[in-house]
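Dear support,

We are seeing what looks like truncated structure output for some complexes. This example has two components. We would appreciate it if you could run it in full and send us the complete token output so we can diff it against ours.
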Amino acid sequence: MSLKGNALVGQSGGPTAVINASLHGVIEQAMQHAEIADLYGAVRGVQGLLGEDLCDLRAETAETIARLSSTPAAALGSCRRKLNDADYARLLAVFRAHDIRYFFYNGGNDSADTTHKVGQLAKESGWEMRVIGIPKTVDNDLGFTDHCPGYGSVARFNALALQGSGLDTQAMATVDTVKIFETMGRNAGWITAATALARAQAGDPPHLIYLPECSFAPARFLADVKRVVDRGQGCVIAVCEGLRDAEGKPIVTFKHAVGTDSFGHAQLGGLGEFLVDLIANELGIKARADKSGTIQRSFGPAQSPVDVAEAKMVGAEAVKAAVGGASDVMITLVRTSNHPYQCTTGTAPLEAVANAERPVPEEFINADGNDVTPAFLEYARPLIGGPVPPVARLTMVRVTKKL
Amino acid sequence: MSLKGNALVGQSGGPTAVINASLHGVIEQAMQHAEIADLYGAVRGVQGLLGEDLCDLRAETAETIARLSSTPAAALGSCRRKLNDADYARLLAVFRAHDIRYFFYNGGNDSADTTHKVGQLAKESGWEMRVIGIPKTVDNDLGFTDHCPGYGSVARFNALALQGSGLDTQAMATVDTVKIFETMGRNAGWITAATALARAQAGDPPHLIYLPECSFAPARFLADVKRVVDRGQGCVIAVCEGLRDAEGKPIVTFKHAVGTDSFGHAQLGGLGEFLVDLIANELGIKARADKSGTIQRSFGPAQSPVDVAEAKMVGAEAVKAAVGGASDVMITLVRTSNHPYQCTTGTAPLEAVANAERPVPEEFINADGNDVTPAFLEYARPLIGGPVPPVARLTMVRVTKKL
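Here is the complete output from our reference environment:
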């Protein structure tokens, strides 16, 4: 069962605030196993591997390695690359040339697919190696795992950002009445849903939440907005960039202008600005849009400590599992208790992970399709590693009028 | 010289992360002066005053007041309202009715103008009162003060956000090569300039910085971008929402679509997306845009401790100055030393403040108009209350190729 040789770790797909914590976990754990000789990093994931671009992780200082857990983005560099048959053959050649017997690939569905196929080809070719997927995605849409490393931190950022942006809107409610707060999430609304964690008491923003799991109907949306605006305290709306209409088409598609003649007059996309426009035209109400874009997944100070610890844990568990003989699996997170929150790890077949997508389930979305349920809050609250900070709420005892 | 009566404080214009710290300073200090009887808050600034909408700040708990300093936005509510002669007369009537002898108004140029005019009218009418402006603006464009409370925190947010977003871009440099990072700043580039504080060493993002103080020339911009992209490590560009062309016209104007027929095809604004489009069309390079919008001025965890302390200080000093006999002035910040950083307060006539705007001076902008100078960094660094956190930088010692 003991397999001796070198190990390789790579990072794939969109960065998160904690993917480097998983790298930290891999490195720290790999150093503890005599089976693992050299420990290499793939520079820019499989893209680097194709060019045989490997770096020596044992050459890094202890200080650098310790800092990985608090460093957002992807320290080894990342890529988005779909491989063809020739690419897979090339990967295997690189593995053989460098005696790679352990391959750890940190990513989402596509990376699980890549890792699985690498493992299959190695087996068919008689190259003994163990391949393990390490979960990562801010979108939180992987199956077989309670949640995904990276999600807790993007959720924390958005809860904190919505809290502030919501207070800002309420302060300016008679000027900029509506705030559109756009989050990431191409096909699933997990990130948008997390803005609900900004609420500390009833009536707190966000007042409306729209997920791509429910088709977006402009008339219903405008009625919702009007109802909230009429309360007089502003209206803060969290929307997912992936919102779709009843036919499943994106609400707004980014279109590139053609040619330079369009300078200043380009046809431009942007869901937030589209909704600002819709509200202005249909309701005659002024709105503003915030779109933090990649800031939400890379803001170091908003790392969830729970997320950091779990990201590191799945990295370490990947090494333990591989050294123990496992292969062709992804490490999963298994919640064993919610009060107090406790989480351990399991495994799931890479092939199953590669082909599954997990949208926000019905029981987490309210009947009107414009908010989340208490069950979602129960699920998500522990992941952000502590509530949003308390804020001053003036009671504003009114002074008797004299005029 | 002693003037007994009630005091009134109001917040005006766009919120900041620390305007409530100034309110905290006013309340705490006002409680210490026997000259001040009741202490009122104007609900939504002058807009509330016109409706005689005052609240009793002495009725708030000590816990609520202590929390003000860590609460972003504007706890009393704010407004943007230009007053006419009838409005000013009404304000004076409210002041007389409630025996307001001290008026503290926390805002920017326009608020200074309002406060000055209130003071003038009171004097002409024989109503003895003292009016003091308290500076506030994320834009940092007030004259007569070294910097403005609110700026240090928006600068801190943007330095932190650009650091993360920059790492994100570098990690994905072969996929999403260019990042457009759009900040606030209608007429002055102070906020955008602060993204330079994200750099810890040469070559760190942002690679290019464009301020509205320099006219924006697309051809020069594209040449800059191409030069940075060719280095192969991605290109991170900080731009100010207020960028203007050689004729002084905004690069992109937000246009509302007319009618619902335009659903999905509205002509939409957005500088970031315009530049993404320009780069795609002219250079054939993929870019993304981040626009944190109001998040940047309301993100509690990014408050600069220096900014919080100074915002509280100018609030307290406003009360001390007024009780001491001053009127018709704004409290200013006066830097007395940079190593170590030390700052005290002064005063400037409200009328002068009302009519001055302070753009980023030439000595803070490099000759090419695409970056800031070391002198700017010297100026801005102390204001964010500590550097951005260190990050792991893998040395990536390459493994010798074998294929």
